[in-house]
Amino acid sequence: NNLLIKNHDNSTTGAVALSVARTNGNVGIGTTSPATALHVDSGVYDVAATLESSDSAVRLSFADSGSTGNNHISLESNEWYIYSNSTERMRIDSSGNVGIGTSSPEKTLHINSGTGNIGIRVESSDSEAEIEFMDSTTTGTLQSPRIGGVGDSLFMQTNGSERMRISSSGNVGIGTTTSPDALLTIDKDVSTAYSS
Question: What is the pLDDT of residue 32?
Fold first, then answer.
């Protein structure tokens, strides 16, 4: 049988505070059937565990057979830190700004790629990848302004329609969704087009 520690003495029906599985040594808190090395069931309460330190930081460390360096999540003075291989990778400061590659995020999301020129990649598994912009006055997601890539071309879209495209050869098209065949192609309407 499993080792059971209940929440009060001299009772066979009291709630289980801690259990240790005899077969594998799994420890359960609030459960008699721990499925992992440590299994905590808080029941109807949202907070299942609290980590507390008496100094300025508290950390939860992770390691496996292939890990090197220090890998942990820590809370220090109301700021969250994520470390891998003993290097800080991401920070959420006390105002909610998220920094990746920077310890002093100045905006909601602040990415510093260091010596690399590319700080972010937007990728999809189909034929287009887009970045969408919305504020409190945007009509809806179908009308939202977007910048996207299709193949090796870049396009800009407003109110659900493409407005400008830069082809892979550097040609710019305005008012046309087809690949522009001149350095600048402007399609004013179905009957009038200007190119240079």
Answer: 85
